[in-house]
Amino acid sequence: MKVFPDRLPATLESPLASVYLVAGPEALLVEEATDAIRSAARAQGVSERVVLDAAGRFDWDSLTQSTETGSLFASRRLVELNLPTGKPGKEGGSALREWVGEPRDDVLLIKCAAWEMASEKSVWFKALDQAGVFVPCWAVKPHQLPKWIVARLRSRGLSIDGPGAQFLADRLEGNLLAAAQEVERLALFYPQNHRLSLAELKEAVSDNARFDAYRLTELVLTGQSGAALRCVRGLFETDVYKPLVVSALSRELQTLGSFLLLSKSVGEQQAFQKLGVWQSRQGPLQMAARRLSVEHLTEAMVQLSVLDRMSKSSQSVYFWITLERVCVALCTGESMALVGTSLTDEGIGHVA
Fold this sequence. Notes:
By secondary structure, the chain is of the alpha/beta class. The protein has helices at 8-11, 27-43, 61-65, 89-101, 123-131, 145-155, 162-172, 176-189, 198-206, 213-221, 225-237, 242-266, 268-275, 279-291, 294-311, 316-332, 348-351; strands spanning 19-23, 48-53, 77-82, 107-112, 133-136, 158-160, 194-196.
């Protein structure tokens, strides 16, 4: 059963399905959907969580083995399977069909950062779709963003008119993560049931700190290493929500990787058109594409996976030091290993 992200909360008020597939390129929607499913699972007594990462040479037998032994803590478990490519392959597809084909008390949550419409025609997807819930997380298109902002503000107890929503959409240039951050900030500044005027929005935007996650991505794309380090320092000092920083960088690097590959066959302008890249974002992407290779991006994505784990642990200082290293490597086009020991002299390692 297909359920879009905005309809998922209502669906989760019912007893949990046996399997959930959350897939798509919009990192914010993917993370929010998986968080909602985790919360619903806890509320319904699923207190134990098993996490599997189906990257590289994953042993698909471990999917079944993960719940074969009894649990000392709970009768039901939430089994989270991270499938980055969205393609389980022949062996994985068979394992997933076997999972949903047998009666189980456990709940399977599959998270895919990449997704193609063609996958919805596969045998394994059809089996999962019939047995559970599919949550597609596609990027919000530019003309849809004002409506998304209105709904997001309403969920935080604020209202806004059409010109105000369009003003924010134009400023945020299609960046959903940045839009979510802006809404949260406005919700802190204004009381419940307040209707935001265009003048208030312009004033709030002008007061916004420059050290934010989506500003960092722009500095990295344009190769401004010094400014990027200062931006990281600002994020550190304001205690920003660390997973948002990782998601912002990951989103831009995924877009850049797609652009690098697609532009080789269809040219830059057509690649931008196919990827739906806003005009104001094309220049920074072009600058990064001339400096970075697919190999650089692959290395960076590995480091972002490490950062993602750090962001959800107690390794706060190490998170910021590693983030500095990744940002400088992306700004300079050098290998991560070549810039790994010099940052503590000027960066977060110095101030922490």
